[in-house]
Design a protein that fits this description.
InterPro entries: Aminotrans_II_pyridoxalP_BS (IPR001917), Aminotransferase_I/II_large (IPR004839), AON_synthase_class-II (IPR050087), AONS_Archaea/Firmicutes (IPR010962), PyrdxlP-dep_Trfase (IPR015424), PyrdxlP-dep_Trfase_major (IPR015421), PyrdxlP-dep_Trfase_small (IPR015422). It contains 15 helices and 13 strands. The protein is α/β, with parallel strands linked by helices. The protein is globular. The termini are far apart. Bound molecules: pyridoxal-5'-phosphate.
Length: 396
C-alpha cells in the first residue's frame, strides 16, 4: 500500500502547480537533438538546445564514442578512486587543462554534480560565499551543501559586490571568502564582469569561482569567458560542463594542481559516484581536440547568432542585452509570451518561452539558442515565422 500522507502531498501539490500554470508538460524528441528536431511526428527548427557547436550529432564524436565502446565496453566499472579511472579519463583531464590553460583539471559526471562537489570540498560553516543573484540552481545548491554563509549580490552589480566583500572581510567572522558567478548568464546572454571581480577579490584575498557552462565553446574563441578576459592566472576555480557546447555529458573543474589534488581526495561525487562512461569520455576528448585546434565551429556559431539577432532587431523586436549567441526576444507579459511561443510552434519553430518566476515579472521572453549547425535557410524561416506571428499578434 502506498502511503496516504505521500499521496495527499503529491496530489495537492501537483494540482496547485497545474492551477498556477507552472506544470511543464515535457515534449519528447523523436530522434537526435540536432538543428531540426521531430516532436509529435512534426519537424521543427530547433532553437532550444545548448548544443551550441552542433557537436551532439557530429560524426567525428560518434566514431570516437563507438571505438571506445569496442575497446572499453559501456561502463567504467567503479568510482574513480577504486578502479574506475580509465586512461580515457586521464586523457580527458589533460585535454581539459590544456583547453582552459590551467595546470590540471578534474572531470565529473555532470556540471550540476561538479558544483555539488567542488564548493563543499573547500568551503564550510566558518566561511562566507558572495553569490551573484542570477547564479544557476546547481551553484545555489552547491553553496547550501557547504553550510557556508551565503550572501547574494545584485546581478553583476560590482558596487554591491565591493560593499559586501568589504563587510565580510571587515567583520573578521569568516575564515575564507569566495565569490561565485556564472561566466555567461543563460537567460539574457550577458557576460560576468570578471576583471572587476578579480580586482575586488585580489584586494581582500578572496577565492574566485567561475561556472562557465554557457561560455565554454562560445566566448573567448571557444576557450571560455576566463580566457576572453585573459584571466587564467587569476581565477581559482574554472568550472565547465561537457554537456552544452561540448555536446556530450559531464562536468569539470580546471585550476592549480593542488586544488585538483584536493578535489580528487575530498569531493564526494568523485569518491562515491561512478566515473563517466568510456563513450562519453572518448567523445569529449574528441570534442576538445577539435576546439583546441580550430575555431571554425565557434566562428560559425557567432555568425549565426549575429544573423538571427540582426534579423529580429530589424523586424522591430527587443532582443535585450545579450553579448553572446543566446538571443532572448523580449515580449513582456507572461500570457502573451507563452502564446507567442505556441504560435511559433505552429509555424514549425521550437523556441521556449521563459517567464516569471524564472525571469522578472513583465520581462517574459522567447529564448533562441542558435547553433553552428543551423543553416541560413533555417534562420530565414525562423525570421519569417517571427514576422508572421509578431504581425498577427499586433506586436510589430
Ligand atoms: C547547465 C548548467 C549547469 C549544469 O550542467 P550539466 O552538465 O547539464 O549538469 C551548471 N552550471 C551552469 C551555470 C549551467 O548553465
Amino acid at each position: 500500500m502506498t502511503s496516504k500522507t505521500l499521496n495527499q502531498f503529491l496530489n495537492s501539490n501537483l494540482q496547485q502547480l497545474k492551477q498556477n500554470g507552472l506544470y511543464n508538460e515535457i515534449d519528447t524528441v523523436q530522434g537526435a537533438n540536432g538543428p531540426t528536431i521531430h516532436i509529435h511526428d512534426k519537424e521543427f527548427i530547433n532553437l532550444s538546445s545548448n548544443n551550441y557547436l552542433g557537436l551532439a550529432t557530429d560524426e567525428r564524436l560518434k566514431i570516437a564514442a563507438m571505438e571506445a565502446v569496442e575497446v572499453y565496453g559501456v561502463g567504467s566499472g567503479a568510482v574513480r578512486t577504486i578502479n574506475g579511472t580509465l586512461d580515457l579519463h586521464e586523457k580527458l583531464e589533460e585535454n581539459l587543462a590544456q583547453f582552459k590553460g590551467t595546470e590540471a583539471a578534474i572531470a565529473y559526471q555532470s556540471g550540476f554534480n561538479c558544483n555539488m562537489a567542488a564548493i563543499s570540498a573547500v568551503m564550510d560553516d566558518q566561511d562566507i560565499i558572495l553569490s551573484d543573484a542570477l547564479n544557476h540552481a546547481s551553484i545555489i545548491d552547491g553553496c547550501r551543501l557547504s553550510k557556508a554563509t551565503i550572501i547574494p549580490f545584485a546581478h553583476s552589480d560590482m558596487d554591491d559586490l565591493r560593499k559586501k566583500a568589504k563587510e565580510a572581510a571587515d567583520s573578521g567572522k569568516y575564515k575564507k571568502i569566495m565569490i561565485i558567478t556564472d561566466g555567461v548568464f543563460s537567460m539574457d546572454g550577458d557576460i560576468a564582469k570578471l576583471p572587476d571581480i578579480v580586482e575586488i577579490a585580489e584586494e581582500r584575498n578572496i577565492i574566485t569561482y567561475v561556472d562557465d557552462a554557457h561560455g565554454s565553446g562560445v566566448t573567448g574563441n571557444g576557450f571560455g569567458t576566463v580566457k576572453h578576459f585573459g584571466l587564467q592566472e587569476s581565477i581559482d576555480f574554472q568550472i565547465g560542463t561537457l554537456s552544452k557546447a561540448i555536446g556530450v555529458v559531464g562536468g569539470y573543474v580546471a585550476g592549480k594542481k593542488n586544488l585538483i589534488n584536493w578535489l580528487k581526495a575530498r569531493s564526494r561525487p568523485f569518491l562515491f559516484s561512478t566515473a563517466v562512461s568510456p563513450a562519453d569520455a572518448a567523445a569529449s576528448i574528441k570534442a576538445l581536440d577539435l576546439l583546441i585546434n580550430s575555431t571554425e565551429l565557434n566562428k560559425k556559431l557567432w555568425g549565426n547568432g549575429n544573423y538571427l539577432k540582426q534579423g529580429l532587431r530589424k523586424l522591430g523586436f527587443d532582443i535585450g542585452k545579450s553579448e553572446t549567441p543566446i538571443t532572448p526576444c523580449i515580449i513582456g507579459e507572461e500570457k502573451i509570451t507563452q502564446e507567442f511561443s505556441r504560435r511559433l510552434y505552429d509555424e514549425g519553430v521550437y523556441a521556449k518561452s521563459i517567464v516569471f518566476p524564472t525571469v522578472p515579472k513583465g520581462t517574459g521572453r522567447v529564448r533562441n539558442m542558435p547553433t553552428a549547425a543551423h543553416t541560413k535557410e533555417m534562420l530565414d524561416k525562423t525570421l519569417s515565422a517571427y514576422e508572421k506571428v509578431g504581425k498577427e499578434m499586433g506586436l510589430l
